[in-house]
Specification:
alpha/beta; 337 residues; three-stranded antiparallel β-sheet; Metal_Hydrolase; 12 helices; eight-stranded parallel β-sheet; 17% strand; aminocarboxymuconate-semialdehyde decarboxylase activity; metal ion binding; decarboxylase
Length: 337
């Protein structure tokens, strides 16, 4: 069965000198080990995350995709690359540079690798301009973080950006980043295990409960990473709150569960019971194969969860594995591996 992985990351081969054009002390850069097969994403002199070659080398990426039978993959920035904390013009130049490097990465296998752009979200005009430029250059959509400091997706400026993407037919993937924590989540990757799913649910609910979805054109193609975080599991709680508390429904004219037709999610939930709930809530037509490749928290055998879920029928598997992504991103992927 054809598989299109719509959620994977890359980081270009930029050194500290390149990164210093944005910020010498805190902009991210890539330190590659002597073997060329492993490395570290660095923030100034501090190691942020160990990484492997497929993150920056398209040859290694395609070799890994071949091993797990993935026909095509959509890459997007590692969220530390977003640059939202910097001055807007500098961030715009940085985003354009990273987007050009993403297309260079994809040029190794242009029929199999596609890219989502990053944008300087702190300035809506510049973000819209870069999203449109990137689309014209060959990107199949944009990836944004789920918030901008204290401003969630219902913020008027972020709604304006999403409206621009709706009008320009630019698909949007929302990825959690800069996870909520007051220092209590010190060990065991708890920000990634607890706060990251919560951040994603917060992004979805901010659009629903604020009434933002009433203002954004229905033509917006919007997807959330990591299976929508904790959204599917807690939707019953949210619906109950909407029915019982006027402060929950004051800006939201319909029950929250009636808005699941406004967005998509990926399949990166790692458990057949979680995938079944996700499909029950969202519908098989709104779940797309996503792996979080090539990070350790991603699905290592891309597509194995969907393939092993025997309760899915063949048309549902085909939709989740490839068909939904082809329609969402406007792709025409010819072959399976």
């Amino acid at each position: 069965m054809k598989k299109i992985d719509m959620h994977s990351h890359f980081f270009p081969r930029i050194g500290r000198e390149d990164a210093s054009r944005l910020d010498a002390s805190s902009a991210p850069w890539l330190q590659i080990d002597a073997s060329g097969e492993t490395g570290n994403i660095m923030v100034g002199e501090r190691s942020f995350r160990p990484v492997r070659e497929a993150l920056w080398n398209p040859v290694a990426r395609i070799e890994e995709l071949d091993r797990v039978g993935v026909a095509a993959q959509i890459i997007c920035a590692t969220p530390i690359m977003f640059g939202y904390r910097y001055e807007a013009r500098a961030a715009a130049d940085w985003a354009a540079r990273m987007n050009d490097l993403a297309l260079e990465h994809c040029a190794y296998a242009p029929k199999r690798l596609k890219a989502l752009a990053q944008v300087p979200l702190q300035d809506v005009d510049l973000a819209c301009r870069e999203a449109s430029r990137a689309k014209a250059a060959g990107h199949v959509g944009v990836q944004i973080g789920n918030h901008l400091g204290p401003r969630d997706l219902d913020d008027v400026h972020l709604v304006s950006f999403l409206t621009h993407c709706a009008l320009e037919n630019i698909p949007v993937l929302v990825h959690p980043w800069d996870m909520m924590t007051d220092g209590r989540m010190k060990q065991w990757m708890l920000p990634w295990l607890v706060a990251m799913p919560a951040e994603t649910q917060l992004g979805i609910l901010s659009l629903i409960l604020s009434g933002a979805f009433e203002r954004i054109p229905r033509t917006l193609k919007l997807a959330f990473a990591h299976g929508g975080g904790s959204f599917a599991f807690l939707l019953g709680r949210v619906d109950n709150a909407w029915r019982c508390r006027d402060i929950v429904r004051k800006d939201c004219p319909r029950p929250p569960s009636e808005y699941v037709d406004r967005f998509y999610v990926d399949s990166a939930v790692f458990d057949p019971r979680a995938l079944r709930l996700l499909v029950d809530v969202m519908g098989a037509e709104r779940v797309m194969l996503g792996s979080d490749h090539p990070f350790p928290l991603g699905e290592q055998q891309i597509g194995a969860l969907v393939a092993s879920s025997e309760w899915l029928d063949e048309p549902q598997r085909a939709s989740i594995c490839a068909g939904n992504a082809e329609r969402f991103f406007g792709l025409d992927i010819e072959r399976a591996i």
